[in-house]
Amino acid sequence: MCLGIPGQIVEVTDAANDLALVNVGGVRRVINIAFVIDEGRPASACIGEWVLVHVGFAMSRLDEQEAARTLALLHELGVAQGEMDDMADMDELRDELRSAP
């Protein structure tokens, strides 16, 4: 099943490569924001915005109310926690691989 989860962009980490830090339910990770920026809306303008995150990409922008409704529904279904746990596990695995000799 494909699932997009609302997250809030908190920092642009690499504007040249369209990368930003997003907060998804308390889990922070770097995602690609190329799909939600353009000449009229640069990466720096996205800080604080809510986006729909799927497999490391911001797929579209959401307003805060829509993000809240979507998160509430996902929590109600119990899906969001599993997805966030998977993201945290992926981050831990990445960190372990980086620190391996």
TrEMBL record:
Q: Record's SUPFAM superfamilies? A: HupF/HypC-like
Family matches, as Pfam families? HupF_HypC (PF01455)
According to the lineage, what is the superkingdom? Bacteria
Report the PANTHER family cross-referenced here. Answer: HYDROGENASE MATURATION FACTOR HYBG
As for family, the record states:
Belongs to the HupF/HypC family.
Return the protein name: HypC/HybG/HupF family hydrogenase formation chaperone
- Organism, scientific name: Paraburkholderia solitsugae
Q: Which gene name belongs to this protein?
A: hypC
